[in-house]
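Handoff note, outgoing to incoming analyst
You'll be picking up this chain. Sequence as last confirmed:
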Amino acid sequence: MSWMQDGDVQATYADVDDLIRDTGFKPATTLEYGIGKWVAWYREYTSHHAG
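Most recent structure output, in case you need it:
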């Protein structure tokens, strides 16, 4: 694991109960899937926008 930077948090715990109650929206994307998709996008994006 890399060192912590200013502003980094050690842990977060999202509570979407209010979101579900108020809007009826219930997130269905798993963390593993979402991170995998983001990493693929980031790699593709940076390969075309390298400085």
